[in-house]
Amino acid sequence: MITGIHHTSFLTADLNRARAFYEGLLGLQPDPARPVMSFDGVWYDVAQGQQIHLMVLPDVELGLKRPVHGGRDRHVALTVTDVEMLKAQLDRAGIVYTLSQSGRRALFCRDPDQNALEFIEVK
User: 7-58+66-121 has which CATH code?
Assistant: First the structure.
């Protein structure tokens, strides 16, 4: 009986670069209450009871060719209040994105480690 998603984890090779993306661009704040683990990383609260966990671990898929459109790759879908504002932020940062092919107000981009993210507008 699934009741929700607690967290999603992404591998990163460069925590400072990943933090610049998740904190500087997306505005997430680290959760200082998370325990220290046997590897470096950071936890972000996305919504009540939902988190993103960045883990500094070797990427076993390094060099794997990823689809240009993140919707054709495994990804996490996050909700946002304003896709147009996010598009402007991504444009200013030089982050490539693709729009949802379904026609809904959503876009896909990749973080610095090529993890795919979907952003869906909800009002």
Answer: 3.10.180.10
